[in-house]
Amino acid sequence: MLGPDLDISVQQTAVLTGGSVAAAVGTFNYQVLSGGRIAPDPAWVEANIRTQQVPILGTVTCHKVMLPQLEAALREIVERGLADKIHPGEYGGCYYPRFIANTTQPSLHSFGIALDLNVPGNGRGTVGEIDRSVVQIFKKWGFAWGGDWGWTDPMHFEMSQLVEAR
Predict the structure, then answer these.
(1) pTM to 2 decimals?
(2) Once rounded to an integer, what is the mean pLDDT over residues 15-42?
(3) What value does the mean pLDDT take over residues 144-163?
(4) In Å, how far are 12, 154, 156 from 28, measured between CA atoms?
(5) What DSSP state is assigned to residue 121?
(6) Average pLDDT in the 25-42 region?
(7) Is the pLDDT of residue 3 over 70?
(8) Are 114 and 107 a contacting pair, CB within 8 Å?
(9) Between the CA atoms of 90, 91, 97 and 102, what dihedral angle is there, to the nearest 10 degrees?
């Protein structure tokens, strides 16, 4: 449910604050849609959101700044023999313009810098089933893990720092 402080008849602005990730990702204007969805400015989407092939998951659509780190993390997971720990059929997506559930705050999925893996076994409020070696690799490549939060979200990984992919 949208709060009374959000005027859905006017354009809103999504802003990440602080740090190198915020500076690299930028801000965008958006319109509020039904069902908790938002419609980012098409010019921002055109300039920043990309679709490409990555190891294990196949085709993903994410922010261009995150893609090298995501690819590097997934490549390392393959190299370490852990590819079977990520289930491509249970990939919950990356770029999905919407609010965080029960808020009027745009989700990091709206910026294309968050992704959900192995969704069925890693629900909110649980410890999750995701392999902790996979988690550690993602952290090495600049991702924060939702399993570390007070109200856990173990399927969720989000870009939290810029790491140069090699």
Answers:
(1) 0.90
(2) 86
(3) 95
(4) 8, 28, 22
(5) G
(6) 91
(7) no
(8) yes
(9) 50
